[in-house]
Specification:
Helix content: over 70%
Order of helices and strands: HHHHHHHHHHHHHHHHHH
Number of helices: 18
Strand content: under 5%
Length: about 400
């Protein structure tokens, strides 16, 4: 296997892992707002050409795991604050025991894997079909022929074309499926215990002893067992999911049609006041409530006022500035980066060394120019503020 082939396979492997994780994990668990997604750091293997030592790689992995755990702990604390879970009264042991019997029946071993398999089997195969070399998009990228022309070809021709590039395509897809799916099932199995426990507390608070007893009696019957073995998997049944998707457009259309009405009803609401809107008397009251000095709040209020004035002055002077070409280049690069999420052609591992070097040099120059443009803007803002305060 050549180094280039190894890189391509590694890239595919990373994509599969990330896609698999995204299919099963909540979005907020993968990436907290304003922070890097820890997943990419955890699953990304070390580059084969890297000169990092094994000890350094282990340290980097440990650091990535620690960072991920820290962000998850922060998310847990935030959820506890929002929902006030830590302030809930204790659950009576007898009530909790009844609820644990209920949730053990509702989430039997393997039920999460069964639910995900309804969706995952089809989703994963579809994903592999789109990015495994058989889709119109991938064939267009590999051949340079427009995807519309490829779409007009019959299935037999597409298979023959894909096989020319990768005669072992099906075996490779099968091997990846055999490696990833057991891992996902193992992870889901680990989640079942915490899920049962959380559900037990929720059920113990929501239902009384009589209701829990009735549920447990039903779940012990053949019909009840049949229900508990399938109810979760049916949440991800293709017919259910398709019905939900079909129901989305009417929902959106209602909001679009009633947009003017909603806007009219909301625009009359008084706007939220800012610190700059408070009078001296109100600042004194606020200072007493917050146990801080009036001087500190006045400084903050005056700073808000000066910032707003400076922003208006800068906006007024903005017409005299000419757009810097490098700034435009940075904006174009941002658009290209967004497109890279959906277009495998942006995978730099597939680029030639010369092309990659040229793009990186231009990006570095654009970044430097963008920084210079920002510094120039800050300089103008400072001048405007100085001119205003000197009057």
């Amino acid at each position: 296997m050549t180094n280039r082939e190894g890189k391509l396979i590694m890239s595919t492997w990373k994509s599969v892992l990330i896609a698999g994780a995204m299919a099963f994990a909540p979005a907020h668990a993968l990436a907290a707002p304003g922070k890097e997604a820890p997943l990419a750091e955890v699953v990304a293997p070390a580059d084969e050409e890297s000169d990092q030592s094994e000890a350094t790689s282990k340290a980097a992995m440990a650091d990535a795991k620690a960072k991920m755990q820290k962000e998850i702990d922060e998310a847990i604390k935030m959820m506890e604050r929002i929902f006030g879970v830590d302030k809930l009264p204790a659950v009576p042991p007898a009530q909790l025991a009844l609820a644990q019997t209920t949730t053990t029946a509702l989430v039997p071993p393997g039920s999460l894997a069964k639910m995900i398999d309804n969706m995952y089997g089809k989703l994963f195969k579809g994903f592999m079909g789109e990015f495994g070399g058989m889709s119109d998009l991938m064939l267009s990228i590999k051949t340079g022929v427009e995807s519309e022309k490829i779409a007009a070809l019959d299935e037999k021709s597409k298979v023959a074309i894909a096989d020319l590039f990768d005669p072992h395509r099906k075996e490779r897809e099968e091997q990846i499926t055999n490696v990833v799916k057991p891992l996902i099932e193992e992870v889901l199995g680990d989640l079942e215990g915490p899920m049962r426990n959380g559900m037990a507390y929720a059920y113990a608070r929501k239902f009384n002893a009589q209701q829990l007893g009735d549920m447990n009696a039903f779940f012990a019957t053949p019909s009840g067992k049949a229900y508990t073995s399938e109810w979760m998997a049916l949440q991800a049944d293709p017919e259910v999911m398709l019905a939900i998707v079909k129901g989305v457009p009417p929902l959106i259309e209602k909001f679009m049609d009633r947009g003017p009405e909603i806007e009219g009803k909301l625009k009359d609401l008084p706007k939220e006041r800012q610190l700059a809107d408070l009078s001296d008397a109100e600042l004194a009251k606020l200072a007493k409530l917050m146990k801080v000095s009036v001087k500190e709040l006045k400084e903050q209020r005056d700073q808000w006022n000066s910032t707003d004035d400076a922003t208006e002055a800068v906006d007024a002077a903005g017409d005299d500035w000419s757009a810097d070409a490098a700034t435009d280049a940075v904006a174009d690069a941002a658009v290209a980066a967004e497109a890279a999420i959906d277009d495998p052609a942006y995978d730099r591992d597939t680029w030639s060394d010369a092309d990659r070097t040229r793009v990186e040099q231009l990006e570095e120059a654009a970044s430097a120019a963008s920084a210079a443009a920002y510094d120039a803007q800050e300089e103008v803002v400072a001048k405007v503020r100085k001119k205003k305060t000197s009057k």
